[in-house]
Amino acid sequence: MNITTGKFMAAAIMAISVGASSVYAKTHVQPSAADLALAQKVESQLKDSGVLEKGLTEVRVEAQNGDIVLSGWLQHADDDRKVIATAKNIEGVGSVRANFRTWSSRRHPS
User: Fold this and answer.
1) Which 3-state string (H, E, C) describes the chain?
2) What confidence tens digit (pLDDT) does each residue in 8-58 have?
3) From edge to edge, which strands make up the β-sheet containing 96-102?
4) Number of Cα atoms under 13 Å in the Cβ half of residue 49
């Protein structure tokens, strides 16, 4: 490889790296302080409400612009309605989306 080719290759690699960083930054937005506080509030109220069975659920709560995304494992398929309803009733929550798996439908990855 000569010097010109080497410079071209280095420039191409740099352009790809910068482009990939730009795409990553646009698709992976860091949550604001308000969203982090809302996610913690939802998680806390879900635990305190009793809709989550201790030891049998693993629910992840994420917030973006006041919208909540719930994911994880539930003991029973119909538990998702209770969890979603509880989250929707929390002050500051816009919409709630959920993507749960249940122990009865698939083996839990321990």
Assistant:
1) CCHHHHHHHHHHHHHHHHHHHHHHHHHCCCCCHHHHHHHHHHHHHHHHHCCCCCCCCEEEEEEECCEEEEEEEECCCCHHHHHHHHHHCCCCCCCEEEEEEECCCCCCCC
2) 555 545 545 444 444 444 556 688 999 999 999 999 999 898 888 766 678
3) 58-64, 67-74, 96-102
4) 17
Q: Which residue has the tokens 């191409």?
A: 12
pLDDT band at 104 (very low <50, low <70, confident <90, very high): low
Find, among 75, 76, 68, the residue nearest to 98 by Cα.
68
